[in-house]
Design brief:
Helices cover 47% and strands 18% of the residues. The protein has helices at 9-43, 57-73, 86-98, 115-123, 150-164, 181-194, 212-225, 240-252, 270-277, 292-303, 325-331, and strands at residues 46-51, 76-81, 103-106, 128-131, 144-147, 168-175, 199-207, 234-237, 262-267, 283-286, 312-314, 318-320. Strand 1 (46-51), helix 2 (57-73) and strand 2 (76-81) form a beta-alpha-beta unit. Helix 5 (150-164) runs parallel beside helix 6 (181-194), helix 7 (212-225) crosses helix 8 (240-252) and helix 9 (270-277) runs antiparallel to helix 11 (325-331). The longest helix is centred in the first third of the chain and has 35 residues, at 9-43. It starts with 8 loop residues before the first helix and ends with a helix.
Length: 334
């Protein structure tokens, strides 16, 4: 076997020198990568988000989307579930201020009671963004509101029912949380449309607090009070979860929702499309839950210096019926 030729002393020294340079270059590259990593970590935006709670399927999906979108964008999201209590939200916002976050996002439980804490955030020079619901505060205290038009949602539901009932309908209404923006505006929008039809009127109305159990309980009381919904043409619910509870109550009472009475609600959650396919729900106005992209685009744009945002960044809404329920269910992974 042929042996490799022996290197000269000069060649050996050149090789050692080359290896030394290579080691220095590798060390420098590793160091630069580490510094870059530290730089990214240090510059990551920290955003506080005070969420209403987890009262509905829509809310749970919205929270999940906000967390996933934050992770995708490298945002350090501090998430607080208020369990539908405004006092919990006020504590959370003050905690975010104390932590000196870069921005605060609030999905408010109710519209009132926000002035003082918004002034505290402004004094701390922390921008606040209102999402989903609304507040009755001086608009100068927050950057913008990023949300759908709840009044339009009510009008879409009312217009569908007016057409479906030919303008002749006694309605029972399941309201959302008292004092919340969607409950106030969806009711206003719905009533604005049905007021155009003399033979359409709400005969009973009560809050189910946006929950399935609340909707079921209120519907049970409506069934008893109206002798199994005699003379009732439709059930109008401010969200799908209350409608799902109402459907359960009607079925337990031997009624056929979607046949004995018309049903229309808001949110467009997967289970309402399943109910449509089962013939138990007639219509739902979709409130998009995957809105993290809209919200973070605005928040991060503002933190980068963009200032020309309107006071309301509108998220579109659509009405859906059994005709496209299967397509919507597939879209939502149901």
């Amino acid at each position: 076997m042929r042996r490799p030729a022996k290197q000269s002393g000069a060649a050996s020294k050149r090789e050692e020198k080359g290896m030394g340079i290579l080691k220095h270059l590798l060390a420098a590259a590793v160091g630069a990568a580490a510094l870059a990593s530290l730089s990214v970590s240090a510059s990551a935006q920290t955003i506080g988000f005070s969420q209403v709670g987890s009262e509905s399927d829509w809310r749970t999906a919205f929270s999940a989307d906000m967390k996933a979108e934050a992770q995708k964008r490298g945002v350090n999201l501090k998430f607080s579930d208020a369990q539908q209590k405004e006092e919990n939200q006020l504590k959370a916002v003050r905690s975010f201020i104390a932590q000196k976050v870069d921005a605060i996002i609030i999905a408010p439980v109710v519209v009132t009671g926000w002035d003082q804490v918004l002034k505290e955030a402004q004094a701390a020079k922390i921008p606040v963004f209102i999402v989903d619901r609304a507040v009755e505060s001086d608009p100068s205290l927050y950057v913008t509101r990023i949300a759908a038009d709840f009044n339009l949602e009510g009008r879409l539901a009312g217009a569908w029912l007016a057409q479906a009932s030919k303008g002749n309908c006694n309605i029972v209404e399941l309201q959302g949380t008292v004092g919340s923006a969607p409950a106030i505006e969806r009711k206003k929008g719905f009533e604005a449309v049905i007021s155009l039809f003399p033979s359409m009127k709400i005969v009973k109305s009560q809050s189910g607090n946006f929950t399935t159990s609340g909707g079921k309980e209120v519907m049970e009381s409506f069934i008893k009070a109206t002798d199994s919904l005699k003379g009732i043409c439709a059930v109008w619910a401010h969200n799908d979860n209350m409608m799902l509870g109402a459907i359960q109550a009607m079925k337990e009472a031997g009624l056929k929702p979607g046949k004995d009475v018309l049903t229309v609600s808001v949110d467009g959650v997967p289970d309402i499309f399943k109910a449509m396919l089962a013939g138990e729900s007639d219509a739902s106005v979709e409130l998009k839950s995957d809105i993290g992209k809209y919200i973070y685009d605005v928040v991060q744009g503002y933190l980068k210096g963009k200032r020309d945002y309107p006071k309301w960044v509108l998220i579109p809404s659509d009405l859906h019926t059994p005709a496209d329920a299967d397509e919507m269910l597939k879209k939502k992974g149901g």
